[in-house]
Amino acid sequence: MGSLFSALNSASSALDAFQRAVDVTQNNVTNANTPGYAAQVPIFVSQDFQSTNGLSGGVVEQTQDTRNQFADTAVQQQLSLQGLYQQLQSSLTPLQNVFDVSSSSAIPSAFNQLFSAFSEWSTDPSNVVSQTAVISAAQQTASALQTAASALSNIRGATVQQLQSTVAQINQDIGQVQTYNASLAQQSGPDPGAQAQLETTLEDLSGLANVQVLSGIGGTVTVLLGGQTPLVIGTQVNTLQVQNDATNAGNGPPNQSIVDSNGNDVTSQITSGSLSGVLTAVNDVIPSLAGGGQQVGGLNTLAQGLADTVNNLLAQGSTTATPPYQTGVPLFTYTAGSPASVASTLNVNPAMTPSQLAATNPGPPPVSNGIALQLAALDSGTSGPVNGLSFTQYFGTLVSQVGTAVSNASNNATAQTQLVAQAKSLQQQLSGVNLDEEAVRLVQLQSSYQAASKVVTVIDELTQSLINMVQ
After folding, report:
1. Which residues of 248-285 are buried (b: 16+ CB within 10 A; e: fewer)?
2. Handedness of CA 383, 386, 387, 393 (dihedral sign)
3. pTM for the full predicted model
4. Rounded CA gap, 264 and 61, in Å?
5. Residue 164 burial by Cβ neighbours in a 10 Å radius (0-12, 13-18, 19+)
6. Each residue of 26-38: pLDDT tens digit?
C-alpha cells in the first residue's frame, strides 16, 4: 500500500505541475499583444525518488522568463536616438515658416521693395512721393524683421514649455519605476504583468532621455541618466528640473539647463532622447537665429547690418544738392547695447521726414543722387555689408541653415524608425509570445495531464482491489 500511495503522490504532483504549466501557457496567449510582455516558459524539474527515505519522486513546474536583457537594451538605445531626431524635427520645423526664401515671404519681399524704393528715389532725389515711398518701405522692412523676431520668440517659448513637459514626463516615469521596485518587497517573486508595465515605462523613458538600466537586488532596477547620475536606486528617486542659465549676462533669453534634485547640473550627460533634442533646439539652433545665451543671432546680425549700413551712408550724405550741405539723419533706430534684441526693436526713426533723406554725396565731386545710388546698389553686389554678403544673400544662408537642420533631423528620424523596428523585431523573436508554439505546448500539456489522470485512476482501482481482497 505504501508504494501505491507514493505513486499516487507522484501522480498528484504531476497533475499539479501540468495544471500550473497550462495556466502559464494560457497567460501567455492572453498577453500575446500586451506591450512589454515577455513569454513565460514552463519547465519541469524531476524530484528525487527514494522510497526508503519517503521521497516519492514526481515533477514540479518552475516558470522561466524569456526576457532578454540585451534585446531590451538594444530597443531602449534605438528609442533614445529616435526620440532625439523626432524631437529635433518637431522643434525645428516651425522655423521654416519664419525663414522662407520665396519672394512672397515677408523679409525677402520687404528687402525687394526697400531697394526698389531706393532705386526709384535715386532717379529724382527731390521727389516727395519717392522720398515717402522710401520711408514706407523702410517701415515695412523693420516690421517684417520685428515680426520674424516675435515669431522666433514664440517658437522659443513653446520649445521651453516642451522642455518642461519632457522633464515632467521623465519624473513621472521614474516615479513608476520606484513604485515597481517598492512592490517587489511585497511579492514572493517577479510578476510578468508588472514586468511588462515596467518594460513599457523604461522604453518610454528611453525615448525621453539616454538612460542605462541595471538589474538590482531582488529583481529591482537601477536607472542612470547618461550612465552616471542615478534617477532611481531601489525606492529612492532623483528627480530633474529645468533651470535658467545664470551666466547669460542679459544678452537675450538665457540658456536652459537640467539639474537634479540636489542642484547638480546634468545637462552635459544628456546626449539623446527627446530631452536632448529639445535642449539642442532651445540652446543652440534657435539662439543661433534669434539670439540668446551668448549668441547674437543671425536675424539680429541681419537687422543691425541693414540699419548701420543705411544709416552710415545717409550720415555721409546731404539733404541739399548745393552748399551749404546739410548732414543726413539716420533712417533706422534700434535699442543699442543689446545685440540680441536688434531685430525686435528695429524701427524707422520717428523724427524722420521725407525731406531729411540725404540723397546727395557732397563729394568731391558732389553728386546729387550719389548716396541714393549707393543705397539702391547695396543688395545687388557680389559682396555685401553683412559678413561679406548682401542682405538677401545673408538671409538665404539663414534659410539654408534651417532647411539643412530640418532635413537632417527628418532623414535621421526616418532611418531611426527603421532601426527601432528591427530592434523590436529581434526582441519579439527572443522574448515575445509565439502563438503557434503556445498551441503545440498546450496540446502536449493536455495529453500529459490526461496521462497523469489515467495513472491516478489506475492507482485508485488497484487500491480499491486491494481493500476488497483484505476484506
Report:
1. eeebbbbbbbbebeeeeebbebbebbbbbbbbbbbbeb
2. negative
3. 0.86
4. 49
5. middle
6. 887 888 887 888 7
